[in-house]
């Protein structure tokens, strides 16, 4: 076997560093301080390992440890500010607590989600956080069978504790804001249109309930045709409104920033009546404040949600509870 194809071992590093293989192993697995190995030797071994392109055999290493310290997270999307922020803060919080974070994106595909869960468990993840997964109970059941803790984030499940936004209360508040601005700016009382999301999705259903409650409080009836829950995509949001050319005041409740992209496309094509549209979005992006017609957005409290999730890790008393985290209304 030539040099380029031969995998570097701890014995190669030990020979180059002129130390025992057990000392090299202690440096590489993080127990060097317990063995009272000097920092100078630690740095020398790490430098040699890097120069030799050494990589740890993860499965073999895990078999020799009592704990892996791995915490896994499944997310549906990276190209969404909300989920991107969750992934970024999760990694920072995990490292601050002595965990090694592993994040995988599954594109809202239930089969990919389950496969990702199995892979993370095969690497002995101590806890798996399912964020916005389409079938969290399937994943939780597999985790339970594998004696691995699971936590649901963003979307709830029945078989594990869930940390989610208070979608109903935030949607009610946002709807009230849009209706107030329609009355103030356009001298119009509604009803609004609800655009985006899937009614089978817990969050969409909770937001729609808050949307309807805000209308009921004002004695406003909402026609079924005003519920335009056509999925999470900019294209579907733009398409569902393409034949909706406002001849008078129009108000929209937009169910995500993904749908908001489609709303902005639609709004940009309107001509003289574009100023008659007011809308708000359940999701947050700083650029939203610059969009014409946008009166406010809901910012989900990612930091608090993740803090609550980490408090559940390793807690033997955690039940299949649902923890609601209040959102923040951003008014423009």
From TrEMBL:
Residues 8-65 form the HTH lacI-type domain. InterPro entries: HTH_LacI, Lambda_DNA-bd_dom_sf, Peripla_BP/Lac1_sug-bd_dom, Peripla_BP_I. CDD domains: HTH_LacI. GO terms for molecular function: DNA-binding transcription factor activity; transcription cis-regulatory region binding. The keyword Hydrolase does not apply. Keywords: DNA-binding, Repressor, Transcription, Transcription regulation. The keyword Oxidoreductase does not apply. Pfam families: LacI, Peripla_BP_1. PANTHER family: CATABOLITE REPRESSOR_ACTIVATOR (PTHR30146:SF45), LACI-RELATED TRANSCRIPTIONAL REPRESSOR (PTHR30146). This is LacI family transcriptional repressor. It comes from Octadecabacter arcticus 238.
């Amino acid at each position: 076997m030539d040099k380029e194809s031969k995998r570097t071992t701890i014995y190669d590093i030990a020979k180059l560093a002129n130390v025992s293989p057990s000392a090299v192993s202690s440096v590489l697995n993080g127990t060097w301080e317990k063995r009272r190995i000097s920092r100078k030797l630690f740095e020398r071994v790490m430098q040699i390992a890097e120069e030799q392109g050494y990589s740890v055999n993860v499965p073999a290493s895990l078999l020799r440890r009592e704990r892996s310290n791995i915490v896994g997270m499944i997310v549906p999307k990276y190209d969404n500010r909300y989920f991107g922020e969750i992934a970024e803060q999760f990694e920072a919080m995990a490292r601050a607590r002595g965990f090694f974070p592993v994040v995988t994106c599954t594109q809202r595909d239930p089969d990919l989600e389950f496969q990702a869960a199995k892979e993370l468990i095969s690497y002995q993840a101590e806890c798996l956080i399912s964020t916005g997964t389409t079938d969290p109970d399937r994943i939780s059941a597999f985790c339970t069978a594998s004696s691995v803790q699971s936590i649901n984030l963003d979307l709830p499940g029945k078989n594990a504790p869930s940390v989610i936004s208070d979608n109903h209360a935030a949607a009610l508040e946002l709807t009230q804001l849009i209706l107030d601005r329609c009355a103030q700016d356009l001298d119009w009382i509604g009803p609004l249109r609800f655009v985006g999301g899937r009614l089978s999705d817990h969050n969409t259903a909770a937001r729609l309930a808050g949307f309807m409650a805000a209308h009921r409080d004002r004695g406003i009836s909402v026609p079924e045709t005003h519920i335009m829950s056509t999925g999470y995509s900019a294209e579907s949001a733009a398409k569902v409104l393409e034949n909706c050319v406002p001849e008078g005041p129009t108000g929209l409740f937009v169910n995500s920033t993904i749908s908001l992209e489609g709303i902005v496309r639609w709004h940009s094509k309107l001509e003289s009546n574009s100023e008659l549209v007011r809308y708000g979005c359940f999701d947050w992006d700083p650029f939203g404040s610059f969009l014409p017609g946008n009166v406010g957005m809901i910012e989900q409290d990612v930091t608090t949600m993740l803090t609550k999730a980490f408090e559940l890790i390793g807690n033997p008393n955690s039940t299949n509870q649902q923890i609601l985290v209040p959102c923040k209304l951003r008014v423009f």
